[in-house]
Amino acid sequence: MIASVSASHHYIAVARAAINAQAKALGILASRVGDEFTRAVERILACRGRVVISGAGKSGIIGRKIAATFASTGTPSLFLHPGDAFHGDLGMVTVEDLVILISYSGETEEIIRLISSFKASGNEIIALSRNSGSTVARHADLLLNIAVEREICPYNLAPTTSTLVTMAIGDALAIALMQARGFQPTDFVRYHPGGSLGRRLLRRVGDVMNRLVPTVSPDADFRECLEVMRNGRMGFVLVVEKGHGIKGIITDDDFRRLPAVRAQWPHSPLAAKMMAVPAVTINESASCHDAETLMYQRKVKVVIVTSDDGRHPVGVIGIPPVGASSPVL
User: Coil, helix or strand for 305?
Assistant: First the structure.
């Protein structure tokens, strides 16, 4: 048991040291980002074709990820395996495409063999490499430096920190391109129609909300408000005035705070005195993504769903589920 505990502490220390080293490398990368990054973004934006990304080994795996991220966020992209390129896949590359070559050393044989073909077609080349004097970097039109002090591998051999930094610069390019193109969640839906992400972006609040909303009038007393909230099992009661719509909301937190101030009122307090104004609301035609964003911004777990006029409650949506039919967003 003692040996096991000792080993556990050792593994935890190793993990923390590795993660801290990775974080330090990312910090250095961030401080190094400069004009070359801006030029890379501008050249990709000016590209009339696709971004073709190629790399071998671990760089190839990261290249596939970068290409997938580009393609799903509005930048047409594909990954070209350097081995397959020499067996016909070079035909996938057009003269209007821009090429990103990933080679940490800058001397990867499979990547170097591709350069003459891209040059002959007039493709612009962006290199991701640690070495500005390397073959790949010298033949590129632009270099993004991905050098790291050392890998977290204890022998400084296995690509670890360098692959993380490469992926980080790829993600940074994708985000900069998204912002430059004005890429919106509605655009995201077109490329992610399936799975939970697609459902969250495509579904409307009105399709999934709980339609049973606990309500009281502004003149309801303490006991009535408490009873309605308990029966509703949603942790709140909505104060609604007939003909005027939503006036406010009373939560279980409001009830818990009430004993401290109840002595100020000679009689049982009315809903109009207890309620918070205004309640956080969203239109039933809004997307579930919009509802989730609103909850995050307003720091609430429940949003009241209103009709098109924005005055009358028609449902409720929240995190975690509010009532039996409300979804987890």
Answer: strand
For 205-318, CATH number?
A: 3.10.580.10
Torsion (CA) 132, 138, 140, 143 in degrees, nearest 10: 10
Extract the tokens encoding 91: 């035909």
State pLDDT tens for residues 31-89: 999 999 999 999 999 999 999 999 999 999 999 999 999 998 999 999 999 999 989 89
- Which of 58, 52, 26 shows the shortest CA–CA distance to 169? 26
Is the bond preceding 266 in cis, omega lying within 30 degrees of 0?
A: no
CB 249 within 8 A of CB 236: yes
Which of 218, 212, 221, 225 has the alpha carbon at shortest distance from 244? Answer: 218
> What is the per-residue DSSP string for 177-238?
HHHHHT--HHHHHHH--SHHHHHHHH-BHHHH-B----EE-TT-BHHHHHHHHHHHTSSEEE
Q: What is the pLDDT of residues 157-211, one digit of tens each?
A: 999 999 999 999 999 999 999 999 998 876 776 666 665 566 666 678 888 888 8
* 302-306 vs 313-318, strand pairing mode: antiparallel
Q: What percent of the chain has pLDDT over 70?
A: 86
Give the mean model confidence (pLDDT) for residues 121-150: 96
CATH class label, 2-183: alpha beta
Closest alpha carbon to 177 in 51, 73, 102, 53: 73
The angle subtended at Cα 87 by Cα 83 and Cα 93, nearest 5°, is 85
Which distant-in-sequence residues (6+ apart) come within 8 Å of 18 by Cβ? 152, 160
Would you list the domain boundaries of the chain? 2-183, 205-318
pTM: 0.67
pLDDT of residue 272: 76
